[in-house]
Write a structure and sequence with these properties.
Elements lengths: L2 E4 L2 E4 L14 H11 L6 H17 L5 H7 L6 H6 L2 H7 L7 H7 L7
Antiparallel strand pairs: 1-2
């Protein structure tokens, strides 16, 4: 299992870059994951998206509807695309478990469960 070393801490991720323990997440871990994903500085706008995704997941145990994310954090309509390009990158930086294959297919526009 890969380990990221960042600011004196060790962060365990799986082979796809998802945090192995979503409870181990904090803003420092988010910065390390953002650096690994090569998204640049983790600005407040990006962090707002990440925090919303985390809160939504912790409450509903689901991936939020993307069209609602930006509205909920008072940002432009496609803020997640501007900030991260791929919503799954934001999800990984949020330190959340890998979504199932149907969610990933829906996010990528390949359709959901048939």
């Amino acid at each position: 299992m890969p380990v990221i070393e960042y600011s004196g801490i060790r962060i365990e991720v799986d082979d796809e870059g998802y945090l192995t323990d979503h409870c181990a997440w904090n803003p420092t871990v988010a910065r390390a994951l953002a650096e690994r994903e090569d998204v640049g500085e983790l600005t407040q706008e990006k962090l707002d998206i990440i925090l919303f995704m985390r809160e939504y997941y912790l409450q509903y145990h689901a991936f939020p509807l993307l069209r609602g994310v930006c509205r909920r954090v008072n940002q432009p309509k496609d803020c997640y695309q501007e900030a991260f390009m791929d919503p799954l990158v934001a999800w990984r930086i949020a330190g959340l478990p890998k979504p199932d294959e149907h969610v990933i297919a829906e996010i990528r526009g390949e359709g959901g469960v048939v």
